[in-house]
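Dear colleagues,

As part of the handover before I leave the project, I'm documenting each prediction I ran so the next person doesn't have to rerun anything. This entry is a single chain, and its sequence is reproduced below.
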Amino acid sequence: MTAPTRVAVLISGRGSNMRSLVAAAGDAYAIVLVASDKPDAAGLDWAREQGLPTFALSPRGIGKPAYEAALDAALHDAGTEVIALAGYMRLLSDSFVARWRGRIINIHPSLLPKYKGLDTHARAIAAGDAVAGCSVHVVTEELDGGTVLGQAEVPVLPDDTPDALATRVLAAEHRLYPAVLTRYARGLAHPG
């Protein structure tokens, strides 16, 4: 039996996707660290209550290179094999992504390659899309541009607001992300 893949989850807020990943952890992957660029992120409190190791540091005042060096050290100290971005709202530098190439995944609230970046729900509604959704993808130097590992569709309703659509897409994210991370972690443990 192969040991579970060691996963660090990076968050910037309440950590609802992180909670779904923690709840689904098991034979395929284990959460070894919850890290945030915002020391007051609500998700960190929840992670601590669950007994999970945490790392919190703001890049303000120290700069991106020093912040990423400290984050990288914390990830290595935790024995991280895969990084799962879950509502982590800071762009990682190209050099950081290169160091972890193929081992960072992200959940994005659109059906990539549509609507990279922000305001995805408003953009889907404005375009008259019949469906929106979410994607899990491998992180590369291109914003929301890596290989898509899985997607879930959510219908856009006639009277949808961005907030209403966001709520339904988030529910889909909570189902999709753990399933894709499980499959991804098993693939790393049993390549080929």
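DSSP finds six helices and seven strands in the chain. The first strand starts at residue 5 and ends at 11.

All the best with the project,
I.
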